[in-house]
Design goal:
Blueprint: E1 2-3, E2 8-15, H1 19-30, E3 35-38, E4 56-57, H2 63-73, H3 80-101, E5 127-128, H4 134-148, E6 152-155, E7 160-166, E8 169-175, E9 182-191, H5 212-220, E10 224-225, E11 230-237, H6 247-251, E12 255-258, H7 277-291, E13 294-297, H8 304-308, H9 310-318, E14 325-335, E15 338-340, E16 352-354, E17 359-360, H10 373-388, H11 413-428, H12 435-453, H13 462-483
Parallel strand pairs: 2-3, 2-9, 3-6, 9-16, 15-17
Antiparallel strand pairs: 1-2, 4-5, 7-8, 8-9, 10-15, 11-14, 12-13, 13-14
Helix pairs in contact: 1-4, 1-10, 2-3, 3-10, 5-13, 11-12, 11-13, 12-13
Bound molecules: flavin-adenine dinucleotide.
GO molecular function: L-aspartate oxidase activity
Pathway: Cofactor biosynthesis; NAD(+) biosynthesis; iminoaspartate from L-aspartate (oxidase route): step 1/1
Family: Belongs to the FAD-dependent oxidoreductase 2 family. NadB subfamily.
């Protein structure tokens, strides 16, 4: 890695330290490249990967049935070729990286075999897990491994603010390491910045999930696709400070009940409690509206709830939930769309890759199957990292002149505008949307973007850029939603109810 006082250069630059970023860094370094991984996280739990509960899917020597389940859960909208790529490379990636290199202690049966679990819409037990805290058990050793690697430098607490482009090619990023922005030039730039949960008030994601990679890529001119498919998980704790109740709970026997104590999922889908996520989420929402409450009844698990899901059981105790009935409500969880990439993570701009949740590979279509996101991040991270290593030498180009000179910027500006943004997303771009609501969201978000743009580039504060990125990502979601009139998977368009209000409200 060459460093001058003004800028840094590297062969491969990776932005983000979740499973996808770590996998890309590892693969590029294994090919002999010098890798710089920058992450705005200061702790592992800045990445959704660290929060993953249920596990990571394998094929368990039956690739066809995993392919079928992914396509079925997506309502036939997943790209069959992308699904084939995922499934073809799944077991080798899990075996080589997670089992052999990182030695992740996946749960085993008494007989010493892997203890595969099952989740909703999976036709069989094929998911590897560690308790119900699989992400933590994967990410922390992965970060240590990457950090110790001789050809990888990891820089924490460093946010990418913008992509640097020249003649249609991405040349690197501008970071917030200097108050006027610091360029890092790279032969290839891999975005692995995760999802968009922070755009919603109720989300299972960490605060870092502000859609940075998607916004930066779109602003640089890269194609983004399928952004209307925001997945809402059916079972998050319904109270303040929501947390996820993994689908593995239902896979192991927990059931949903409405306020009358009745099970209801049979009325919505033949697979009842194990139906695809979008269907269960809308059913939970409808039953909450009709009866007042939905609970996840974990009594069928008997003693196994505490033993097998200790992290979730602890969160329940922390919230004062006593007994087997946990109040649940849908909650933003995952973005199926993102930066449009091919089977090696290559985006539409030369020199740019995207992997993990910020990318749209086609694997999830309109609705993701449980426990395929960690797998997608791992498989595409490895493929993109390997490909990026064969890319060009870094080239130094002109970087924008950022200033840090706006004393008038109200300190609370970013926080206040973020609140407005989240309210807009919750209200108008939630589980179900009407065309009116989508138009209303677009109008509010356009105004917000105007206000934010007036400040960006006059001040390099990270929260201002996160707000800018979140606003751009939100506008792109609204635009995608407005352009797709068909209700499919996570995108459910209700008929407009006449309200007498205008789209400018
Ligand atoms: C509660 C929860 C449970 C889940 N359970 C499962 C599960 O059981 N199985 C499964 O397959 N999936 C699960 N998922 C989904 C899965 O965890 C995520 O989709 C996946 O981990 C995303 O990985 P990633 O590497 O793409 O992004 P992340 O892990 O989110 O990492 C993104 C990284 O990018 C960094 N970053 C963001 N913007 C910038 C920037 N501008 N500059 C520098 N760095 C930046 C962040 O700090 C972070 O380090 C779960 C998600 C959540 C939230």
């Amino acid at each position: 890695m060459t460093t001058t006082t003004e800028h840094d250069t590297t062969d491969v630059l990776v932005v983000g330290s979740g499973i996808a970023g770590c996998a890309a860094a590892l693969a590029a370094a294994s090919e002999g490249s010098e890798v710089l991984l920058v992450t705005k996280a200061t702790r592992p739990d800045g990445a959704s990967t660290d929060w993953a509960q249920g596990g990571i899917s394998t094929t368990r020597d039956d690739p066809e049935s995993l392919e079928e389940d992914i396509l079925e859960a997506s309502d036939g909208t997943a790209d069959p070729e992308a699904v084939e790529t995922l499934v073809e490379h799944a077991d080798d990636a899990v075996e080589d990286v997670l089992v052999e290199t990182l030695e992740i202690p996946f749960d085993e049966t008494d007989g010493g075999e892997f203890d595969y679990t099952r989740e909703a819409a999976h036709s069989k037990r094929r998911i590897l897990h560690v308790d119900a805290a699989t992400g933590t058990h994967i990410l922390r050793p992965f970060l240590h491994y990457v950090d110790d690697h001789e050809r990888i430098e990891v820089r924490q607490d460093t946010a990418a603010l913008e992509l640097l482009t020249d003649e249609g090619r991405v040349r690197g990023i501008l970071t917030d390491e200097e108050t006027t922005g610091k360029p890092i030039y790279a032969g290839a730039t891999v975005l692995a910045t995760g999802g968009i949960g922070a755009l919603y008030e109720r989300s299972t994601n960490p605060d870092d999930a502000t859609g940075d990679g998607i916004a930066m890529a779109a602003l640089a001119g890269a194609d983004v696709t399928d952004l209307e498919y925001v997945q809402f998980h059916p079972t998050a704790y319904a109270g303040d400070d929501p947390f996820l109740l993994s689908e593995a709970l239902r896979g192991e026997g927990a059931v949903l009940r409405n306020a009358n104590g009745d099970r209801f999922m049979d009325d919505y889908h033949p697979d009842a409690d194990l139906a695809p996520r979008d269907i269960v989420a809308r059913a939970v929402d409808a039953e909450r509206e009709e009866t007042g409450e939905v609970v996840l009844d974990v009594s069928p698990l008997e003693g196994e709830f505490e033993d097998e899901f200790p992290g979730i059981a602890e969160k329940c105790r922390d919230r004062g939930i006593d007994g087997d009935a946990i109040p649940v409500a849908p909650c933003e969880h995952f973005l199926c769309g993102g930066v449009d990439v091919d089977d090696r993570g290559r985006a539409s701009l030369e020199g740019l890759y995207a992997v993990g949740e910020c990318a749209r590979t086609g694997v999830h279509g309109a609705n993701r199957l449980a426990s395929t996101s960690l797998l997608e991040g791992l498989v595409w991270g490895l493929r993109a990292g390997e490909d990026a290593a064969s890319d060009h030498e870094p080239t130094v180009v002109e970087a924008p002149d950022l200033r840090n000179s706006d004393p008038d910027l109200p300190d609370r500006f970013a926080a206040e505008k973020f609140t407005r943004l989240r309210q807009t997303m919750d209200e108008y771009l939630g589980l179900e949307r009407t065309p009116d609501e989508i138009a209303r969201a677009s109008a509010v978000l356009r105004r917000l973007k105007g206000e934010v743009d007036a400040y960006v580039r006059t001040r390099t504060a990270r929260d201002l850029y996160e707000l800018r990125n979140a606003t751009v990502a939100a506008l792109l979601i609204a635009r995608a939603a407005s352009e797709n009139e068909e209700s499919v998977g996570c995108h459910y368009v209700e008929e407009t109810q006449p309200t007498g209000e205008t789209a400018d409200d």
